[in-house]
Amino acid sequence: ISADSASENSPWLTAFTGQSQVRQTRATAFVEEIRDDTSVRLNFVESQETSSAYGRSDRNDTPIHDAEVYQNAFERIENAIFVREGR
């Protein structure tokens, strides 16, 4: 499973330098079922893409290592599972 957040750009950077810069968070989830257990692995990456008026483009991906981000995601998943099981 993979997902991208809404992208954020910097209009001021484009207006003053002719460069475009877009930031986005990407998430991937790997779900594996082994017998009666399910294993879930999440990865979050902050992606920053820049391009210039001259056609050059760069992309910089930075892994997110903040444990709070992952804890929050797993709590939301746990709550969603709880709601679905209650039906």
Plain-language structure description:
This protein has 87 residues and is α+β, with helices and mostly antiparallel strands. It has two helices and five strands; from the N terminus they run ββαβββα. Strands 1, 2, 3, 4 and 5 form a five-stranded antiparallel beta sheet that branches. The two termini are 24 Å apart.
Q: What tags apply to this protein structure?
A:
single chain, 87 residues, alpha+beta, 5-stranded antiparallel sheet, 5 strands, elongated
Instruction: Name the helicity range.
Output: 25-40%
Number of helical stretches of at least 4 residues:
2
Percent of residues in beta strands?
over 45%
| Oligomer classification | single chain
Topology:
Elements: E1 2-4, E2 8-9, H1 11-17, E3 20-34, E4 37-51, E5 57-63, H2 67-85
Antiparallel strand pairs: 1-3, 2-3, 3-4, 4-5
Explain briefly what this protein structure is.
This protein has 87 residues and is of the alpha+beta class.
